[in-house]
Amino acid sequence: MTHWWQAGVIYQIYPRSFQDSDGDGIGDLAGIEARLDHCVALGVDAVWLSPIFPSPMADFGYDVADYCGIDPRFGTLADFDRLIAAAHARGLKLLLDFVPNHSSSQHPWFLESRASRDNPRRDWYIWRDPAPGGGPPNNWISDFGGSAWTWDDATGQYYLHAFLKEQPDLNWRNPAVRAAMMDVLRFWLARGVDGFRIDVLWHMVKAEGLPDNPPNPDYRPEMGEMHSLLQLHSTDQPEVHAIAAEMRAIADHYSTPGAERVLIGEIYLPVVRLMRYYGAAPGEGVHLPFNFQLIEAAWNARALSRLIADYEAALPAHGWPNWVLGNHDRARIASRVGPDQARVAAMLLLTLRGTPTLYYGDELGLEDVPIPPERVQDPRELREPGLGLGRDPVRTPMPWSAAPGAGFTTGAPWLPLNPDWRTRNVAAQAEDPNSMLRLHQALLALRRAYPALATGDFIGLEADGDILAYERRLGAERLVVVLNLGGWPARFDCEGPVRPLLSTLAGPSEVGHDAIRLRGHEGLVLLREG
Ligand code: TEU
Q1: Which CATH class is domain 456-528?
Q2: Basic and acidic residues composition bias: which ranges (predicted)?
Q3: What's the rounded mean pLDDT across residues 46-73?
């Protein structure tokens, strides 16, 4: 039996940047509700919202000060209830972002924890004395650069933070923390949410004794200081799997047939270690440990076909694949591979075997937007400027129309709009049959019309030169996908008769009896006949 989260497509919304409803230049829940019909017209099945909880916004919501509320900038719990009802009325699932590794330093738990060494919540976070010779307890580096430890003068100890000092790590070895956080999941599940994307799942448990991390032999300064060490002891500890299993049991408890509550793990690990997050047995891990390989891969046929084959081969019998092309942390696909190839990339994402996650704005071919220094917001850029680690360029407002503020806001947008917003916007692309938006709509419609594309088997056909070709099979239904990853014409020999269903390019495709001549940057979906 196929579940919704297997056949479906997930759409990530960055709430600050989707739609503003009150003119403050920041997107909000009422805005998202007003734009749900865009998600329906696009053809996605589920919407995942980056964090919407009360937050000082040191890391734009990934620093949560109250796990069971809504930040006033985004709205109220009543707005949230309206949003989820409106989503469900349209047949859309709604997923939230759960941030369990760390809270905000303004969370009441941390305020108590730092109040005194004997506070009952002291052990809810990770406090340590200085190293014997002075200085931080170990050599761990924050993801944003600098030591992962911050000194607290009042109580004379350091606390650990894998990210900003405003994001202290919770101590998941403390059963009280674990119980409180599991209750957070229940709170939202009871409110009707369809699942969670779990932030930095692989970070949640640290090695006993907190030993030093070893140096990274491949480190180069332009990678950012966080990569100077291997995160051997600070991440991916075996104990994390029991926590994932407990979360899964809770999600399953709230699931009904056709309405499974889904867990997605944000995990940046090599494939072999990633697989463990599916759980040792069915139902013991997350449904979808995010597969970020398309974000990190070299964009050529050989590399892509190798990683697809290796990933397929590594999947456990109970593991359903998934693919991600972009998110709020990484350069946009149109900037990574160029605007023409981005159309081919969209076809790849939406025709591979596995649940695709589509990042808002990528359906318009949005590129990274240059941010003038005086408008930089991202702490990662502010902490290590000039390395290109800043994430503002991929978080700019969704351009809806040629109206002032691109239809995103009647006020001043919190980040600059894409420079070409007057022409690159939803309204303009909806009118243009050759637009990126219309290509996404066509690809998503094709997935519904041909179930082989969503859930069929994957058979690699060719990875030669610029051509990547594969077949998707379900029963008698057989579709062939041929992608030209280069800018020049290329030929593919297709055994047996095929009929073209969709091209990434306008105009006629050259599909002969046996040979297909692809134009530069052309991708084709074909139906095998006979
Ligand atoms: O990201 C975690 C994370 O590991 C990424 O920052 C990763 O290091 C980076 O993409 C590698 O280039 C999550 C959220 O997605 C991010 O926005 C938060 O800042 C972070 O956790 C802390 O909560």
Answers
A1: mainly beta
A2: 375-384
A3: 98
Nearest ligand 1 atom to alpha carbon 143? 8
What is the residue with the minimal CA distance to atom 9 of ligand 1? 329
Closest approach atom of ligand 1 to CA 330? 10
Is-catalytic flag, 495? no
Nearest protein Cα to ligand 1, atom 7: 329
- pLDDT tens for 80-133 read 999 999 999 999 999 999 999 999 999 999 999 999 999 999 999 999 999 999
Which protein residues are within 6 Å of ligand 1, measured from CB?
Answer: 59, 62, 99, 143, 163, 199-200, 266, 268, 328-330
What pLDDT score does 255 carry?
98
Q: Which amino acid is at 170?
A: L
Report the distance separating Cα 223 and Cα 387, nearest Å: 8
| Percent of the chain whose predicted confidence (pLDDT) is above 70 | 100
Q: Enter the DSSP assignment of 212.
A: P
Residue from 2, 23, 17 nearest 359 by CA: 17
| Ligand 1: centre distance to CA 304 (Å) | 24
Distance 453 CA to ligand 1 centre (A): 31
For residue 123, the model assigns a pLDDT of 98
| Cβ–Cβ < 8 Å for 455, 7 | yes
Question: Of 101, 143, 144, 179, whose CA–CA distance to 383 is shortest?
Answer: 144
pLDDT band at 350 (very low <50, low <70, confident <90, very high): very high
Cβ atoms of residues 360 and 297 within 8 Å: no
Q: Given 45, 225, 266, 392, which residue is catalytic? A: 266
pLDDT band at 474 (very low <50, low <70, confident <90, very high): very high
* Per-residue pLDDT at 388 exceeds 90: no
In this prediction the pTM is 0.98
Question: pLDDT, tens digit, for every residue of 161-173?
Answer: 999 999 999 999 9
Topology of the domain comprising 4-103+174-206+236-443: TIM Barrel (3.20.20)
Torsion 130-132-133-137 (CA) sign: negative
Atom 3, ligand 1: which residue's CA is nearest? 200
Q: What distance in angstroms lies between residue 423's CA and the mean position of ligand 1's atoms?
A: 31
CATH 3.20.20.80 region(s) of the chain? 4-103+174-206+236-443
Rounded to whole angstroms, how far apart are CA atoms 484 and 465? 9
Amino acid symbol at 21: S
Task: Tell me how far the alpha carbon of residue 250 lies from the centroid of ligand 1, in angstroms.
Answer: 25
ipTM: 0.96
Residues of the chain with CATH 3.90.400.10: 108-160
Q: Is 363 designated active site?
A: no
Q: Note the CATH number of domain 108-160.
A: 3.90.400.10
Burial class for 420, CB neighbours closer than 10 Å (0-12, 13-18, 19+): middle
pLDDT in tens, 264-279: 999 999 999 999 999 9
Active-site residue, from 199, 236, 368, 378 = 199
Name the residue of 59, 200, 392 whose CB sits within 8 Å of the most ligand 1 atoms, as the mutation to test its pocket. 200
